[in-house]
Amino acid sequence: MEDEKKQNDVIVHPFPPVYDCKSKVLVLGSFPSVKSREDNFYYAHPRNRFWQILNIIYQMTATTVEEKKALLSFVHIALYDSIYSCSITGSADSAISRITPASITPILQKTEIDTILCNGTKSFSVYMEYCYPETNVKAIKMPSTSPANAAFSLSSLIAAWKPFLPSAGA
Predict the structure, then answer these.
(1) How far apart are CA 139 and CA 50, in angstroms?
(2) Residue 116's beta-bridge partner residues?
(3) Locate the Uracil-DNA glycosylase-like domain: which residues (predicted)?
(4) Average pLDDT value over all residues in the chain
(5) What's the CATH number for 2-164?
(6) For residues 30 and 86, what is the distance between their CA atoms, to the nearest angstrom?
(7) 24-51: b or e for each residue (b if 16 or more CB lie within 10 Å)?
(8) What single string gives the DSSP state of each residue in the chain?
(9) Is the Cβ–Cβ distance between 10 and 86 less than 8 Å?
(10) Which of 129, 97, 134, 128 is nearest to 7 (CA)?
């Protein structure tokens, strides 16, 4: 009964998007993992390669939340998720149901964003179904940085992501 209740609970996205008026690229995940919800910030699972990719591409060593926010601001990347609330057990995208999409338009109106990168298939499918009709900004489906995406090595992820990310400080 307890598991059934947990599965039926709707969880609201626990932290705000990260962006500023100079953001040029929006990276959308699907919904925060258990670890990210615990740490109250994006891509907190130690095996998620998102921060490792950015640190390598931009030759930085951002490890704390404040350092990561500073890195995002410096390179003009915004972060959010395509799902505002959902039912989810654990962290797997396959366990997501009862989706309420995130509102992306206000972010686009307050920034210079002209590129939206969806981190994985679930983020992309939710964005295209629910958000694209409102924003009319096409998104690019990127290979997931999740540890569940073992098919992509770190070097393959860097090669896939780098062409779509802004130049440092540009």
Answers:
(1) 18
(2) 26, 139
(3) 16-153
(4) 92
(5) 3.40.470.10
(6) 10
(7) bbbbbbbbbbeebbeeebbbbbeebbbb
(8) -HHHHHHH--EE--S--B--TT--EEEEESS--HHHHHHTSTT-STT--HHHHHHHHTT----SHHHHHHHHHHHTEEEEESEEEEE-SSS-GGG-EEEEE---HHHHHTS---EEEEESHHHHHHIIIIIHHHH---EEEEPP-STT-TTS-HHHHHHHHGGGSPPTT-
(9) yes
(10) 97
Residue 97 tokens read as 């149901």
139 contacts 28 by C-beta, under 8 angstroms? yes
Six token digits for residue 47 = 């095996």
pTM, two decimal places: 0.92
The number of beta carbons lying within 10 Å of the beta carbon of residue 10 is 12
